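Q: Given only this backbone (205 positions), what sequence would you predict?
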Protein backbone atom coordinates (compact mmCIF):
# COMPACT_ATOMS: atom_id res chain seq x y z
CA UNK A 1 0.00 0.00 0.00
CA UNK A 2 1.33 3.51 -0.79
CA UNK A 3 2.70 5.56 2.06
CA UNK A 4 0.04 7.75 3.67
CA UNK A 5 0.08 11.27 2.21
CA UNK A 6 -2.64 12.97 4.22
CA UNK A 7 -1.63 16.59 4.80
CA UNK A 8 -2.96 18.91 7.49
CA UNK A 9 -3.37 21.99 5.33
CA UNK A 10 -6.23 24.44 5.40
CA UNK A 11 -8.59 25.22 2.57
CA UNK A 12 -6.92 28.60 2.18
CA UNK A 13 -3.51 26.95 1.67
CA UNK A 14 -4.70 24.61 -1.08
CA UNK A 15 -4.05 25.58 -4.70
CA UNK A 16 -7.05 26.52 -6.84
CA UNK A 17 -7.01 24.02 -9.71
CA UNK A 18 -8.88 23.65 -12.99
CA UNK A 19 -11.86 21.32 -12.54
CA UNK A 20 -11.64 19.90 -16.06
CA UNK A 21 -7.97 19.09 -15.62
CA UNK A 22 -8.25 17.30 -12.31
CA UNK A 23 -11.31 15.34 -13.44
CA UNK A 24 -9.30 14.07 -16.39
CA UNK A 25 -6.43 13.22 -14.07
CA UNK A 26 -8.83 11.13 -11.99
CA UNK A 27 -10.39 9.33 -14.95
CA UNK A 28 -6.96 8.51 -16.40
CA UNK A 29 -6.25 6.48 -13.27
CA UNK A 30 -9.43 4.37 -13.42
CA UNK A 31 -8.26 1.10 -14.96
CA UNK A 32 -10.19 -1.55 -13.00
CA UNK A 33 -13.86 -0.70 -13.65
CA UNK A 34 -14.13 1.59 -10.66
CA UNK A 35 -17.60 3.09 -10.21
CA UNK A 36 -17.89 6.88 -10.19
CA UNK A 37 -21.01 8.79 -9.13
CA UNK A 38 -20.98 12.38 -10.35
CA UNK A 39 -23.10 14.91 -8.47
CA UNK A 40 -25.40 17.36 -10.19
CA UNK A 41 -24.25 20.11 -12.49
CA UNK A 42 -20.67 20.81 -13.42
CA UNK A 43 -19.34 17.89 -11.39
CA UNK A 44 -20.95 15.32 -13.65
CA UNK A 45 -20.59 17.51 -16.74
CA UNK A 46 -16.82 17.28 -16.33
CA UNK A 47 -17.03 13.54 -15.69
CA UNK A 48 -19.01 13.13 -18.92
CA UNK A 49 -16.58 15.26 -20.90
CA UNK A 50 -13.65 13.21 -19.60
CA UNK A 51 -14.94 10.02 -21.26
CA UNK A 52 -18.23 8.13 -21.00
CA UNK A 53 -17.33 5.03 -18.99
CA UNK A 54 -20.06 2.40 -18.39
CA UNK A 55 -19.24 2.56 -14.68
CA UNK A 56 -20.03 6.30 -14.46
CA UNK A 57 -23.35 7.50 -13.05
CA UNK A 58 -24.30 11.05 -14.00
CA UNK A 59 -26.76 12.25 -11.38
CA UNK A 60 -29.53 14.57 -12.53
CA UNK A 61 -31.68 16.74 -10.26
CA UNK A 62 -30.85 15.14 -6.90
CA UNK A 63 -28.71 17.73 -5.13
CA UNK A 64 -26.61 16.31 -2.31
CA UNK A 65 -27.17 12.64 -3.05
CA UNK A 66 -23.96 11.64 -4.86
CA UNK A 67 -22.39 10.37 -1.63
CA UNK A 68 -25.41 8.31 -0.49
CA UNK A 69 -25.72 6.73 -3.95
CA UNK A 70 -22.00 5.93 -4.07
CA UNK A 71 -22.21 4.46 -0.58
CA UNK A 72 -25.00 2.16 -1.73
CA UNK A 73 -22.85 0.92 -4.61
CA UNK A 74 -19.88 0.42 -2.28
CA UNK A 75 -22.01 -1.59 0.15
CA UNK A 76 -23.46 -3.75 -2.62
CA UNK A 77 -20.11 -4.39 -4.33
CA UNK A 78 -17.31 -4.35 -1.72
CA UNK A 79 -14.83 -5.67 -4.31
CA UNK A 80 -15.25 -2.54 -6.47
CA UNK A 81 -13.60 0.80 -5.70
CA UNK A 82 -16.22 3.55 -5.72
CA UNK A 83 -15.79 7.32 -6.02
CA UNK A 84 -18.33 10.01 -5.23
CA UNK A 85 -17.70 13.34 -6.97
CA UNK A 86 -19.55 16.18 -5.30
CA UNK A 87 -19.59 19.96 -5.25
CA UNK A 88 -19.29 22.08 -2.14
CA UNK A 89 -22.83 23.41 -2.42
CA UNK A 90 -24.32 19.95 -2.76
CA UNK A 91 -22.30 18.53 0.14
CA UNK A 92 -23.40 21.38 2.39
CA UNK A 93 -26.97 20.17 1.86
CA UNK A 94 -26.15 16.63 2.98
CA UNK A 95 -23.43 16.87 5.64
CA UNK A 96 -25.01 14.03 7.61
CA UNK A 97 -23.86 11.63 4.91
CA UNK A 98 -20.26 12.08 6.08
CA UNK A 99 -21.03 10.67 9.52
CA UNK A 100 -22.87 7.75 7.96
CA UNK A 101 -19.92 6.96 5.69
CA UNK A 102 -17.53 7.14 8.64
CA UNK A 103 -19.71 4.83 10.74
CA UNK A 104 -19.94 2.30 7.91
CA UNK A 105 -16.16 2.27 7.48
CA UNK A 106 -16.29 1.32 3.80
CA UNK A 107 -12.75 0.58 2.65
CA UNK A 108 -13.72 0.82 -1.03
CA UNK A 109 -15.27 4.30 -0.95
CA UNK A 110 -13.63 7.65 -1.69
CA UNK A 111 -15.29 11.06 -1.72
CA UNK A 112 -13.87 13.87 -3.85
CA UNK A 113 -15.33 17.33 -3.32
CA UNK A 114 -14.74 20.04 -5.90
CA UNK A 115 -14.95 23.28 -3.91
CA UNK A 116 -15.20 26.51 -5.88
CA UNK A 117 -17.01 28.43 -3.16
CA UNK A 118 -20.08 29.00 -5.33
CA UNK A 119 -23.32 27.57 -6.64
CA UNK A 120 -21.87 28.08 -10.10
CA UNK A 121 -24.59 26.53 -12.22
CA UNK A 122 -27.37 28.71 -10.74
CA UNK A 123 -25.56 32.04 -10.93
CA UNK A 124 -22.40 31.70 -8.84
CA UNK A 125 -24.02 32.66 -5.56
CA UNK A 126 -21.41 32.17 -2.79
CA UNK A 127 -21.51 29.03 -0.64
CA UNK A 128 -20.44 28.88 3.00
CA UNK A 129 -17.01 27.60 2.01
CA UNK A 130 -16.26 31.05 0.60
CA UNK A 131 -16.91 32.40 4.10
CA UNK A 132 -14.67 30.05 6.06
CA UNK A 133 -16.36 26.65 6.16
CA UNK A 134 -13.62 24.02 5.70
CA UNK A 135 -15.17 20.81 4.39
CA UNK A 136 -12.07 18.70 5.11
CA UNK A 137 -12.23 19.81 8.74
CA UNK A 138 -15.95 18.97 8.75
CA UNK A 139 -15.22 15.52 7.33
CA UNK A 140 -12.63 14.85 10.00
CA UNK A 141 -15.06 15.99 12.65
CA UNK A 142 -17.61 13.55 11.25
CA UNK A 143 -15.14 10.70 11.75
CA UNK A 144 -13.35 10.53 8.40
CA UNK A 145 -9.77 10.57 9.65
CA UNK A 146 -8.35 10.07 6.14
CA UNK A 147 -9.39 13.48 4.88
CA UNK A 148 -7.09 15.96 3.19
CA UNK A 149 -7.04 18.97 0.91
CA UNK A 150 -5.16 18.37 -2.33
CA UNK A 151 -2.26 20.79 -2.09
CA UNK A 152 -1.84 20.84 -5.89
CA UNK A 153 -2.35 18.64 -8.96
CA UNK A 154 0.46 16.22 -8.10
CA UNK A 155 -0.81 15.77 -4.57
CA UNK A 156 -4.34 15.24 -5.94
CA UNK A 157 -3.07 12.37 -8.08
CA UNK A 158 -1.25 10.88 -5.09
CA UNK A 159 -4.42 11.03 -3.01
CA UNK A 160 -6.40 9.32 -5.79
CA UNK A 161 -3.77 6.58 -6.01
CA UNK A 162 -4.03 6.14 -2.25
CA UNK A 163 -7.81 5.77 -2.53
CA UNK A 164 -7.47 3.27 -5.37
CA UNK A 165 -5.34 1.10 -3.10
CA UNK A 166 -8.30 0.72 -0.74
CA UNK A 167 -8.24 0.99 3.05
CA UNK A 168 -10.82 3.78 2.99
CA UNK A 169 -13.03 5.60 3.40
CA UNK A 170 -11.19 8.58 1.94
CA UNK A 171 -12.17 12.23 1.64
CA UNK A 172 -10.31 14.44 -0.84
CA UNK A 173 -10.98 18.15 -0.98
CA UNK A 174 -10.00 19.92 -4.19
CA UNK A 175 -10.29 23.68 -4.59
CA UNK A 176 -11.40 24.46 -8.13
CA UNK A 177 -11.90 27.42 -10.39
CA UNK A 178 -15.13 28.71 -11.92
CA UNK A 179 -14.32 27.98 -15.54
CA UNK A 180 -17.18 26.54 -17.64
CA UNK A 181 -17.26 22.73 -17.88
CA UNK A 182 -15.72 21.00 -20.88
CA UNK A 183 -19.07 19.52 -21.92
CA UNK A 184 -22.65 18.89 -20.85
CA UNK A 185 -24.08 15.51 -19.90
CA UNK A 186 -26.78 13.99 -22.08
CA UNK A 187 -29.94 14.51 -20.03
CA UNK A 188 -31.66 11.17 -20.47
CA UNK A 189 -32.17 9.80 -16.96
CA UNK A 190 -33.48 6.40 -18.05
CA UNK A 191 -30.54 5.88 -20.41
CA UNK A 192 -28.04 6.95 -17.75
CA UNK A 193 -29.53 4.60 -15.18
CA UNK A 194 -29.71 1.64 -17.56
CA UNK A 195 -26.15 2.17 -18.77
CA UNK A 196 -24.77 2.38 -15.24
CA UNK A 197 -26.64 -0.71 -14.07
CA UNK A 198 -25.23 -2.64 -17.00
CA UNK A 199 -21.77 -1.19 -16.35
CA UNK A 200 -21.64 -2.45 -12.78
CA UNK A 201 -23.54 -5.69 -13.39
CA UNK A 202 -20.33 -7.69 -13.56
CA UNK A 203 -17.74 -7.85 -10.83
CA UNK A 204 -14.74 -5.57 -11.09
CA UNK A 205 -11.58 -7.35 -12.17
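A: Predicted residues:
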Amino acid sequence: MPEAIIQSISRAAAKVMNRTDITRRLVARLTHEEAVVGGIGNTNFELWASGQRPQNFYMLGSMGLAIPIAMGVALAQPERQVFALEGDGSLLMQLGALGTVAAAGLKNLAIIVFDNGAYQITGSQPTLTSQGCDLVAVARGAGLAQASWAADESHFEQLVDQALAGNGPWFIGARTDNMPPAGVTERDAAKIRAGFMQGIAKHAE
